[in-house]
Amino acid sequence: MKVEFVNPFINGLLNTLSMMAQTELRAGKPKLKDDAVARGDVSGVIGMVGAQVQGSLSITFEENLALHVMEKMLGKKVTELNHEVADMVGEITNMICGSAKGELSEKGYEFNMATPAVVTGKNHTINHQVDGPRVILPFESDFGRAFIEICFNK
Amino acid sequence: MKVEFVNPFINGLLNTLSMMAQTELRAGKPKLKDDAVARGDVSGVIGMVGAQVQGSLSITFEENLALHVMEKMLGKKVTELNHEVADMVGEITNMICGSAKGELSEKGYEFNMATPAVVTGKNHTINHQVDGPRVILPFESDFGRAFIEICFNK
């Protein structure tokens, strides 16, 4: 997977959380999957389909970070990963992917997005099933960690 | 969502497990999401994108059933939801969706499939984020339960 494919998703997350939740994340070093497993408590998963490529993306949050973003975005203090937090993570997933889609479209890569699904459950892992490369992007913040995992079949 | 949209996915799961793992599931009554939550231990998630529709599908297995199918499909007894089981669930997800895609294409509904992602984690839930209807299809077997959740934006 080319770097120019990855950066738009990193920017998508950083910009979305900065604008919508005044929360600054620090992007760590991208890792090829297999030497890294991302665990978290709530995740958004979204599929991408273009004429030439298929892929999927997941964005996983640790509980504390998700609750912090929820409070900042909706001005509402919640103490557990309820349906409202799941909806918010679904929205964020759409925003990251939509933002990257726009940026990649300008570079000549076109794809459409499926409907996002949100996974809730303490300490789960997500594994993208594809023959192509899988990349994990780690993020840190003062409130907890997040991970994006992306794969495309080329 | 129309019934003709749902049945191909039911048949896809029943046929896949019967053929590949000699495991018979009994399909329960489809339920509209909101009065039902599917919990399980390992799930495949896949996005679908057509010219007119976007949607996603998840197939969730209880641990016991996933381990049974693993043993039947690969002739290998495993005792935990490891990477091999995740790969198998990814394969099954592809097969269900591919089988339904063929059947729906004959009826004039065309979509392409994204890459599947597999979620592992005790007792997680998956929630599809869409304005359209969300349908849960429950399945029972002698070895545990499975759930398909499907949504399309129309």
Q: Provide the domain count of chain A.
A: 1
CATH topology value of chain A? Chemotaxis protein chec
Gap from first CA to last CA of chain A:
6 Å
Q: Helix tally of chain A?
A: 3
User: Which percent band covers the strand fraction of chain A?
Assistant: 35-45%
Order of helices and strands of chain A: HEEEEHHEEEE
Helix amount of chain A: 25-40%
For the residues shown, what is the average pLDDT of chain A? 91
Number of strands of chain A: 8
Please summarize the sheet with the most strands of chain A: 8 strands, antiparallel
CATH superfamily of chain A: CheC-like
Q: What CATH architecture label of chain A applies?
A: 3-Layer(aba) Sandwich
**Parts with pLDDT < 50 across at least 5 consecutive residues of chain A:** none
Q: Most extensive interface, residues per chain? A: A-B, 40 and 40 residues
Apparent shape of chain A: globular
Look at the structure and give the CATH class of chain A: Alpha Beta
Q: Label the structural class of chain A.
A: alpha+beta
| Radius of gyration of chain A from CA coordinates | 14 Å
Instruction: Please state the oligomeric state of the protein chains shown.
Output: homodimer
Short recap of the structure:
2 copies of one chain form a homodimer. Chain A is of the alpha+beta class. The first copy, chain A, is about 35% helix and about 35% strand.
